[in-house]
């Protein structure tokens, strides 16, 4: 897929666990894992906003487009 989710990178930079992020954002570990592993088909803006707030970042820091050619 050409859309890359960089949550792992941001978590490492912030020294935050996936568990802590899921608690701060208010989503389940299962849903966060689906998103983190690039298996999600969609993301709600409210979830994206919560992740940005918890990680003190911009949406473009989380979601990246890479041309697969």
From TrEMBL:
Gene3D superfamilies: lambda repressor-like DNA-binding domains. Signal peptide: none annotated. This is XRE family transcriptional regulator. It comes from Viridibacillus arvi. It comes from the Bacteria. CDD domains: HTH_XRE. GO terms for molecular function: DNA binding. It holds the Pfam family HTH_26. Residues 7-62 form the HTH cro/C1-type domain.
């Amino acid at each position: 897929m050409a859309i890359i989710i960089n949550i792992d990178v941001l978590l490492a930079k912030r020294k935050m666990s996936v568990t802590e992020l899921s608690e701060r954002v208010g989503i389940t570990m299962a849903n966060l894992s689906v998103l983190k592993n690039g298996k999600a088909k969609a993301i709600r803006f409210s979830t994206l906003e919560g992740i940005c707030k918890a990680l003190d970042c911009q949406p473009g820091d989380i979601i990246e487009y890479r041309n697969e050619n």
